[in-house]
């Protein structure tokens, strides 16, 4: 792998950048302020082919590799990570079906995305268990050719608009992570209810909700893999999606740095542009070099997927480093802007609020360190 993008990748980057600049950025403040779901933007992204990009060609998708997905994601994250999350959440829910679904299941659940703008959501976290996935309480009990689901999910991105959900549930409550199974649950089933949109600190364009399952019956054919495979399916999906999330974090940090550079060149204190004061210039130098480092980690984790190598360790490196880096860069951008950094008329404030979630969702920064330490000591 070289460090230069090929012509196709440059085109992809430019397409996504153009969309981010001309469509996402102008509307981002409105969606941040109101929390309105960016339906029109999602439709436009769909029409441009920027959504569902990882669905294999034989199921009607673009079959885009992980590295290309990261290139796309960085640009959309540069535009607005709230809107980028709303757009990309489909990929997270689709990943387990791509990885573990049978041909029939892939045809049934993935192919419709090619002809219609549909939404899918990934429902693993519960009110009582987020980091500790094996501690979830939702159950799925086999009854003839059906499974009956009971339980609750929390913080599910896109839940208010999803046509179907990837759901992790326990088919054997006594067997820990080996008793977990993975299902596709259509939205229109009896007993499934979705809560109100949560009023979050950042990424407010994205939709996050709780869900409840009360004697929800689904076809047994919606089980992905075998009973007991669910935990590993969910983990393998994270290996694929953590680099994408990291790429969006790189995009956010890049936006914060660019704003800081422009401001620090313009704003004067003590008779010179503030970047010429070492305290400010060094902050921006750190931003720039950390962004480069984060992108390289992210691309390496993606490159491993594209070369059929297990990337658990590198996905965790990328997610941890990028999340912490994006938060640090966004905080420093506020500092560069001084009082204006604390004000909603300037861009740094929103970027700082949006950055925080990178250290929480798709596995917190602590959990990434847990994974890194385990992987290192397992060797
Ligand atoms: N690949 C294959 N197998 C794996 C993997 C993997 N990556 N990880 C673990 N396993 C296997 C282990 O080898 C082990 O196998 P065995 O039973 O044979 O020994 C088994 O799974 C159990 O593994 P662990 O002992 O490591 O399991 P633990 O219970 O200790 O927990 C974790 C492991 C890593 C802490 C796990 O619980 C975890 O990842 N927690 C974080 C949860 C998380 O990331 N949640 C995110 C929810 S989704 C979300 O936030 C979406 C945000 C919206 C984003 C939208 C844009 C895309
Ligand atoms: P907890 O697990 O209770 O953790 C609380 C604190 O303890 C954290 O700081 C954590 O790092 C720390 N901690 C826990 N265990 C350890 C440990 N072993 N070592 C060190 N520190 C530890 N989930 C989905 O399934 N699908 C989604 O689409 C989705 N989207 C989300 C969108 C948003 C906006 C938010 C806020 C969350 C979303 N989540 C989603 C859930 C998200 O993945 C969880 O919030 C996250 O994994 C943390 O789980 P928790 O909130 O239960 O925190």
Automatic annotation (TrEMBL):
Transmembrane segments: none annotated. This is Acyl-CoA dehydrogenase family protein. Gene3D superfamilies: Acyl-CoA dehydrogenase/oxidase, N-terminal domain, Butyryl-CoA Dehydrogenase, subunit A, domain 2, Butyryl-CoA Dehydrogenase, subunit A, domain 3. Residues 121-216 form the Acyl-CoA oxidase/dehydrogenase middle domain. The lineage of its organism: Bacteria, Bacillati, Bacillota, Clostridia, Eubacteriales. The keyword Oxidoreductase applies. The keyword Cell membrane does not apply. Its cofactor is FAD. PROSITE patterns: ACYL_COA_DH_1 (PS00072), ACYL_COA_DH_2 (PS00073). Residues 228-376 form the Acyl-CoA dehydrogenase/oxidase C-terminal domain. Belongs to the acyl-CoA dehydrogenase family. It comes from the Bacteria. Residues 7-115 form the Acyl-CoA dehydrogenase/oxidase N-terminal domain. InterPro entries: Acyl-CoA_DH_CS, Acyl-CoA_Oxase/DH_mid-dom, Acyl-CoA_Oxase/DH_mid-dom_sf, AcylCo_DH-like_C, AcylCo_DH/oxidase_C, AcylCoA_DH/ox_N, AcylCoA_DH/ox_N_sf, AcylCoA_DH/oxidase_NM_dom_sf. Keywords: FAD, Flavoprotein, Oxidoreductase. SUPFAM superfamilies: Acyl-CoA dehydrogenase C-terminal domain-like, Acyl-CoA dehydrogenase NM domain-like.
